[in-house]
Here is the input.
Amino acid sequence: MKKVNNNFLIVLICVVFSNCIYAQKQFSTEEHPSLILTKQGVASIKKELGNLPLFDATLKETKEEVDADMATGIHVPIPKDMAGGYTHERHKKNFYILQKAGVLFQILGDKKYAEFTKDVLFEYAKIYKGLPLHPEERSYSRGKIFWQCLNDANWLVYMSQAYDSIYDWLSEEDRDYLESELFIPFADFLSIENPKFFNRIHNHSTWGNAAVGMIGLAMRDTTLVNRALYGLDTENLDLSEKDNDGGTIFDAGGKAGFMANLYEAFSPSGYYTEGPYYQRYAMYPFMVFAEGLYNTGWDKDIFKFKDNVLIKAVSALVQLTDSEGDFFPLNDAQKGMSYYTGAMINAVDIAYYYGDQDPSLLEIAKKQQSVTLSSAGLAVAKGVAEGDFTSSIRKSIELLDGPKGNQGGISILRPLQSKTPMSLVVKYTSQGSSHGHYDKLSFSLYSDGDEIIQDYGLARFVNIDQKNGGGYLKENTTWAKQTIAHNTIVQDEKSHFNGDYGTGSKYNPLKYFSDFSNDNIQIVSVKDSNAYQGTKLHRTMALVNIDGIENPLTIDIFKVSSEEKHQFDLPYYFFGQIISTDFKMDSFSSLTPFGTDNGYQHLYKEASGSSNKETASFSWLSNNKFYTLTSSTSEKEKLFFTRLGAKDPEFNLRRDPGFVIRKNNTDNAIFASVIEKHGGYNAVTEKASNAFSSIKAIEVLPSDKAYTVVKIRTITDKIVVLAIANNDAEVKEKHSIKINGTDLSWKGPYYLLIK
Here is the structure.
């Protein structure tokens, strides 16, 4: 057990964060509402009713939803179910409905909404103190209303807003009853009684901090607000404790509270270390608690903290989506989550209102077709109605990781010249807390809303009771987190860092160079030397435009160098039906697992083979579009087609296909491939267009250790040469190398020739 002096830490955190001096903040107003709504804001909303279509439509939809639920009566069942079960979903619906009912009371002035809110809260107050811990024992921090404290915190974040909306309407006696029987015990349970939930750097604690802080703001309780902002005054913490995902619970340095989460979890560019799926989830408590701190006058500078990091975080999240608005499923992430979710509607509105009124956010709001019923939502609805924005063109972007921006990052490459939106996502982040995956230097590829080369995401059916109560499945650990589940190098069938969270959390890859300034190429190069001891990984990826080729080519050069000989596998996970191969493959009459552990046990070997020439190519059809992967190879290398689903008796995994290139018994290897999207198929006319790839061959040209040179030849005999300087990324450095009797000279870390 390691003792941590939290009184010292509280003062230290205040100084480091340039925030207020502990316990000297105060409220500038006693008016209610004052969290998301304010009295002045409500008055402005009432004046605009009927004038702003987007706001009016949201108000109408909200009223219909709340009225319909109120008509069914009051439902406060004794908790018993996991996520997806009746009691879980009913209590979840209650906090959504009451938050909205409070807003309707303020805007419409109809007391029925206040009465309903009061009656439901009173029902909770009658039972709360007598509730035992939730009967399901799966969480490291069991809740009382829900199976985990995280969901209890969700409840209190929303119910705090409901209480704030009816605060002045309630009698003093009613307020005393609710606070003594429900809200204060609830806040103490989430914090004092559950320090391992409350005192960590994680999205769980962000919800807990916001819950305690928002009810503290509503009650004007400075003790609760300070507890939320700076964590618990707890001297004895077992720093070795883990959560359900294997992640550390307590920060080794003792950092805790909302301000610590705001500082530590976000990079200066607004990237959240757990990945976009959980960033989207955490943005709600981050944004609404910050809004409450601002509106109550507790902290008018909260949105300026860390150089406006909350505002930047919203813009970063928008960038972390494909052309349809779906978040890239990095780390633990359910596919299909998008910026149309309520948390993002809220985040976009708040970022626009409290930020610099970025017109690109109005573009997103127009697509969302909904706003929050608040001053922030009103401002966005006005902006959309006035048409004060233009459609933006997405460009390549880098998002740093780590609180200081020095722990790797994400590069999203988007071609400057392309008829079809494309996104090449190259991941070289830190571990990503307990939701991180062992996927250093991995990538995924998207085009026009389609996944071309996929990241699997998580193994979980969120809120589907039949699948482990909606919780994480064991296959999330045995498959989804493992390296072989991603499009990156696997050495000797072992995951990066041997799948050890503690080791993985110590290291991160580094960007070697990038260049987004060239119309013909968008390129990034990244390195890692810690995933495998004694092995260096170096991956360069680029989108290249070539006249006469329909879509930009994706070029992938993966150089591996090791102190000893190993087996190296590089998988590519695609979707769709294989159309053709130009190499011999033998399919198996019976399916056997690809390996025994580290995710290999979940892959079936469907076919294997090799190429008798220097290039191996296969094409597939997905969503009526053709794709071709062409790789530099030889007879020595093994090629496999795989299918997910082995050792999965409960069918928890999708039956996705994969293609694996294996190089055996080598200490130096270069994997070079090009991916092309081309043509399509019309099922109505039954016609295929441009069904054959434009690529004839790709080869790695002989060179020394200082350089890697790849040549691509098209079917029209165009030549593309991409050379990488492996040891010097200085943009002014001159390079020269002789390849097959031809001199190549250039300045900078790479050279592109198209002829």
Remarks:
- The chain has 18 helices and 26 strands.
- The first strand starts at residue 2 and ends at 3.
